[in-house]
Amino acid sequence: MSLLVVGLSHRSAPVSVLERASLNADAQVKLLQDTVAAEPAAEAALLATCNRIELYADVDKFHAGVAELSTLLAQHSGVGLEELTPYLYVHYEDRAVHHLFSVACGLDSMVVGEGQILGQIKDSLARAQELNSAGRLLNDLFQQALRVGKRAHSETGIDRAGQSLVTFGLEQLAAGGEVQTWARGKKALVIGAGSMSSLAAATLARAGVAEVVVANRTFDRAERLAQILTEGDDTDVLARAVPMESVPYELTRADVAVSCTGATGLVLTAGSVAAAVEGRTATPAAVDDGTPDGEHGRTAATGAERGNPAATGLGGEDGCPLDLPAVQGTAGFSVLGEAAVAGMAAADLEQHAAWVDNGTVGGAQRAARPGTAGPLDPAPDADAIAALAATVATVGRIPERRRPEPADEPPRPEPVLFLLDLAMPRDIDAAAHRLTGVRLVDIESLAEASAGAPMAADVDQVRRIVSDEVAAFGAALRAAHITPTVVALRTMAADVVASEIARLDGRLPGLDDKHRAEITQTVRRVVDKLLHAPTVRVKQLAAEPGGAGYADALRTLFDLDPEAVAAVSRAEDSTEKDRGPA
């Protein structure tokens, strides 16, 4: 076995790299064709999802195979090889089998235990079979991976640990609330009609939305999905299809929009989302500039509030006992406030007061903004410092306050539009994060949210299943490797028997048919008994780790024609290609 996998996933690469490396359908086909045309690879299959891009191949040389597959991935993804290489992982032989089986069971998914990956593996195998890039090894591997994944879901409670990306995304939109409660009565827009979009539409319908509008570039597919939703027995949702041109208008009516298309560019820009919010509320959607991604909707602190001495008009750092760079990023912190001098010794407090006085001209520079009161207002700060200074004489030190007082922040308005982007590359402009009235969940935020999710106890059981199945698959593969040699040996033995019976007929032409048949059967039994024990034993030995050399030994001992062995292998491969996916 020379199975090699080279790939990257959400575990090895940031979403921004995965997004750039994603392959459209045409690029996937071309990558497979170029891989099997490359010298080291005899077979190839590609597993490409929103979370991973993995190229599987049967190679005859490990290092040459790694170099060739890595180069092909870089060429077809458009990401330079030097940039892509740090994010690539490589698995070989049994480790490659273990990886694919783990992927099939959902152990390597962003949401552990999710079952959608099985359909994606099945699609990958079907594509490789259609392009004739999958031979015996990859056919057996992918079909067994599907069986292992199904076994994990049927024999364990891994489903309790996992859920689909759609369900997980909707839970993030609901912000900890029940999805059914959050979704009830809402109007939903689903952009795309593929497997992920269809799952999203069905999940929303079961969750209790009042309406599902499906938009797709191929209108017939949108109509078909809408019809399936309407005729479903488990929901009474109103569903209809619209062309893609209607998305801007439908977005003004929708409460929640889910997008998962194969588009290479943005489907919804931040401007179109802002226009939709304004169309719903008649109020422009404000943009929160400079807000960190993890704190969307928070008011950015001014330079003065961040302790910037230039903004307070106090000059530079000379003479200031504070560590100004350390406090500049703290929202609501004032170098003039009580929190600034908490914990100072008397000498430091005196130095701080002198620094404040030297940097002040008539008190005019000490206000952050004209007419603004609060922690930067000079009068209460000066009083506070004076009062604190008076206590130093008796206690010697101001009690330390470990962190500044929290600043009052205006609450973020409740969202009026919920967006779920499940596409890779992204369909919805990430800048929509900063629009007030919008809550956007995308692949990147889902990865962050799932990073610390607890794993169910059933995961350990699934891992044991994977380990057992990997061992069984390796043994079967090693045993199968010797089968053509055994078949060629038995064929040679049958030819020897036939040749000897023909020679006997020449020497005993008067031999009747009954005796000839008895002699023939006797010779065949002798040959079978002589070959039975060694061929059975050699299959057992070949199934063990390191047993691949027994086939070579058998060919050498019996002087088997290599072409005869190869002919058996070609016949078996031809039979495998006629089989469909599991």
What would you note in describing this structure?
There is one protein chain. The protein is α/β, with parallel strands linked by helices and 582 residues long. The protein is built from 24 helices and 10 strands. The strands form 2 sheets. Strands 7-6-5-8-9-10 form a 6-stranded parallel β-sheet, with helices on both faces. Strands 2-3-1-4 form a 4-stranded antiparallel β-sheet. Helix 6 (116-130) packs antiparallel against helix 7 (136-155), helix 7 crosses helix 21 and helix 13 (247-253) crosses helix 14. The longest helix is centred in the last third of the chain and has 50 residues, at 458-507.
Offer a concise description of the structure.
The protein has 582 residues and is of the alpha/beta class. It has helices spanning 15-21, 25-37, 62-77, 81-84, 94-104, 116-130, 136-155, 158-161, 165-173, 179-183, 195-207, 219-231, 247-253, 270-281, 309-312, 324-327, 338-341, 346-358, 378-395, 443-450, 458-507, 513-543, 549-557, 562-577; strands at residues 3-9, 41-48, 52-59, 89-92, 187-191, 211-216, 238-243, 256-259, 417-421, 438-441.
